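Below is how a single chain appears once it has passed through the pipeline. First comes the sequence as given, then the structure the pipeline wrote out for it. We keep one example in the README because the format questions we get most often are answered faster by looking than by reading.
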Amino acid sequence: MAAHPERLLELAAERATGALYLNGRWGGTVFLIDGRIGYVESVLTPGVEALLLRPTYGDEHGWAELVAGLRRGETAPAITAAGQLIRSSVSAVDTEILRRTALADAALATLGAAVPEAARTRTRFRPGEKHWCETLCTFAVPDVLAEVNRRKTVLGRLTLGVAPRRAVRRVPKLPIERIRLTATQWNIARSADGSTTPLDLAWLLGHGVFATTVAVHQLARLGVVTTDPDLPESSAARLVPARHAMSFLHASIAESDENLCAPESQQP
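Resulting structure:
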């Protein structure tokens, strides 16, 4: 694990509440509540505000401008708009699904990335600080780290050169006459123009980065999209660890909110 698991485990043992800032180019913020992780935020991946707002945007140019700002860390307008959505029209269940998706992606980017040695000591903990989106479910630090490792292993087994930061493009001709795609697969395929990576596509479509990367791999296996044809296939010899019992998308929630424990979505 690349970034600060020891510090997180120390804060968990102290039952700390606050925000742990992990600085540097690959940095992010881990929000703790009584020593458990309530949310993880990274400028590299779409946050819950982006996932909430994407369905409300019919103007692609306007969405692209908002995404550009979010990727620069300019989140205040989006947070205000997302908060209004939660109060007016988005259910607690739907919000929790998107919150967990954003949390998982940010955890992978923040806690699973290859971080230079110089960045590993740059941490700052601010006691009492909370994320703007209300936390309905928290996760034990070891469970989050285990899920990050699981996702890293899944991505490491992808073949055909597919990776979150490697550009993909549609093939000029399909290998067979007809292929049935899901709506998500179709949206990815039509947006894969050779300059967009799975990470870019996730921002563009308002989806999770991990789920989008896996979907790109499925499309590559179907022959719908491709990466650099000269790239060798990666080894698929390792087994993928089973999803942890307290994983992000299927975790138990407080007994008083049992309705939110139902299986949420088909996203990995």
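The radius of gyration is 19 Å.

See the next section for the split statistics.
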